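fyi for ur records
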Amino acid sequence: MTTRASLQLPDAAGAVIQYNAGHGDPPAFDPRLASLAPSRTRVAYSAVHVVSNPLAAVSDPTVDVAIDWDETMAYRHHLWSLGLSVAEAMDTAQRGMGLDWPASQALIRRSLADARAIGAVDRIACGAGTDHLKPGPGVTIADVKRAYDEQCAYVEGEGGRVILMASRALAACARGPEDYASVYDHVFSQIRQPVILHWLGDMFDPALAGYWGSSDIPAAMDSCVAVINANRAKIDGIKLSLLDDAWEIHLRDRLPASVRMYTGDDFNYPKLIAGDENRHSDALLGIFDAIAPAAAAALAALDAGDHARYNAIFEPTVPLARHIFRAPTRSYKTGIVFLSYVNGRQKHFRMIGGQESARSIIHLAELFRLADRAGLLVDVDDACARFRPVLELAGVPQS
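which gave:
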């Protein structure tokens, strides 16, 4: 017998099996959570997605950027209402995978204006990089410095704090650690307030392989730490996205006391945020976009010293996160937007550049199951109703 909360879902082998949603154990938090104060003990940024406008009259939807500004801004307000901070115009917003610099400027300007309007300007930071500079044989270190200057000046000119994104152009033209030091020393000499560095691993972006001047992680960390130590007054923290908790802890223990470690590890975040006897990590995570109510509730439990509740909330989200960020990791944005859609945060499942097609229907079906088991479907019946036409369009008939 089928119900409103029943779907025909494909499994890993492609066999279609009836799935009844909403029949697991009750979650340790309320997925309908709508309001919570910011954490007192951790700084928690959610890197946030953009909602495309599929009805825009564009000549080439794989190239032209069309954003639904109302729904895009509404999602940022949703995160702020949960006490989370917003990391704007990052890779979660398809930066470098559809969101170009002109569109990023508009996004940064609008988000900062909305943050000021509600008194949340201290809970937003914006990505500045060099993505308007296309890597090529003629690109020089001086070009990279000018590109960083332009984007950092724009963010700060709009009244925002900078997240200093890794540079594809720098990775392509640098000859060694000394070139990275030269670029970052220059950038830090120009900025007005401390930035968050971003070390994005090549599992997220293959063009960033060998960042900091070496493909050997210990050598790269030596170069990174040297840059941080030389500029510690201009650095709030560093976001590390290598999906390896051991490397994050190793780097965290080497940071000056004044420099935060912002975990970007979407596989191991509960352990890293909880910390150890030495230090903890704060958070700047794409997965917080998808699990925002759970993240907010878990951080509130941590504030209260309730580690059992913290773990009970976060642990069921980890299989979901590992699935969303599975290889090819750069396609994780599809899962983020899919969950926003099935949870009624946007009207459609379409993405800039057609990236909704970056994951298979089998991947999305398993994502749906894992979200259900983690208690992250706000309204199970509505989520099923929203997923049903996506399944049918993929050739999975619903009875």
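Residues 37-357 form a domain with the TIM Barrel fold (CATH 3.20.20.70). thats all i got for now
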